[in-house]
Amino acid sequence: QRNVETPLIVVADQDLAQHRVAIFKAGGDDYLLKPFDLDELEARIEARLARLVRKKKPDLTSYEFAGVRVDFDRSEMIRDASVIQLSERENRLLRYFVENRGKTISRSALLQRVWGYRYASLTRTVDVHILRLRHKIEENPKDPRLIVTVPGFGYRFDG
């Protein structure tokens, strides 16, 4: 292991203590015995990746862009000397965009990461919240420069 942070889940066909010990000493993070349930494997993968993401991301408390200062702890932003309140969902959405600035993010990823939906559904809730957020942060919401629509895929934050 050379500074690799990718979780390693070992699937084995024998349940011997010496094998499990060797796997963990070699850097394995989890162990699953064959035959196994695919839902259990998926749950173990999701849990390991969630821990990795939480470990990597420092707590983002504020951010400045394009003359806007956002205080994520207070769910508010200051633009042109005016304090503008953000709803809890707008706050989470903007924070997620800031944490992933420059990356194109699909609607389904936003539904999973910001709304907590396990499966993306056919809903316009993302678009509605994006529109509301644009009205708060963009100089011209009809010609957005900060939260950009990527046709056929989703959105990108360029702030």
Word description of this protein:
With 159 residues, this protein is α+β, with helices and mostly antiparallel strands. The protein has 2 domains: 9-56, no CATH class; 88-157, Arc Repressor Mutant, subunit A (Orthogonal Bundle), CATH 1.10.10. The chain is built from 5 helices and 9 strands, in the order βαβαββββαβααββ. A 4-stranded antiparallel β-sheet has the order 3-4-5-6, with no helix packed on it. α3 crosses α5. The longest helix has 19 residues, at 38-56.
Offer a few descriptive terms.
about 160 residues, alpha+beta, Arc Repressor Mutant, subunit A, 2 domains
How is this structure best summarized?
The chain is α+β, with helices and mostly antiparallel strands and 159 residues long. The chain has helices at residues 17-25, 38-56, 88-99, 107-113, 125-137; strands spanning 9-12, 30-33, 62-65, 68-71, 76-79, 82-85, 104-106, 147-150, 154-157.
